[in-house]
Amino acid sequence: MDPYSLKKLNQCRRERRAAILLTDLGDGRDRVVVEGDLVAGNLGEAVASAFRSGKSGVVEVDGRSFFLNVHLPPPRLVMIGAVHISQALAPMAAIAGFDLHIIDPRTAFASPERFPNVRLDAEWPQEALARSPLDAYCALAALTHDPKIDDPALKAALEAGCFYVGALGSRKTHARRVERLTEAGVSPAAIERIRAPIGLKIGAASPAEIAVAVLAEIIEALRSRGLSASRSVAA
């Protein structure tokens, strides 16, 4: 590997940025492609697909062979609210490979007994997220139904460009949420990114079923990143 490529990969790891070490198997030359870099043509499509899937492998493009070694930051799920849904969602998300972080200033809910082996901050989201900033490989699920807790976290997630932002509540609840976020200076385009009501529409009723719907929606968002943009360009 070119020393410059190694240095760039290590920098991407530190900054939680996705990158691919792209090696031409014909001449052995390599380079690092950071997610968001422009790569034209069929090779660009293969690179975009690899970023979505997270899978490394050989691709054949225009008569040439390339090895795409994919380096993605571990996806992180931040749950705002140490509630029953979070209790069901946390172990499932851990099995799916997510780093977990639960934030809830209500100490009666945010206890290690209810959430063993999970990073837990019993404080306001503004304080916890100042120490552990959100990024593009974070999903945020706002689950408290309390605007004082949920709204600042939602605003922070939208500003950070999280790949998934979801909020619990009915359409009427979300309409009031939209009003509050608009008054707080969040743009309509950003607010449109919030998945509300949260979770895929599978008729979920119990906390465990809602957790399944939420996790499925998060995984869908993770694996479809960039598709809408690429389709718009193609159109």
Automatic annotation (TrEMBL):
Domain XdhC Rossmann: 77-218
Pfam families for the chain: XdhC_C
InterPro entries, per database record: MoCofactor_Util/Proc, XdhC_Rossmann_dom
Native organism: Chelativorans petroleitrophicus
Highest taxon listed in the record's lineage: Bacteria
UniProt protein name: XdhC family protein
PANTHER family reported in the protein's UniProt record: ALDEHYDE OXIDOREDUCTASE MOLYBDENUM COFACTOR ASSEMBLY PROTEIN, MOLYBDENUM COFACTOR INSERTION CHAPERONE PAOD
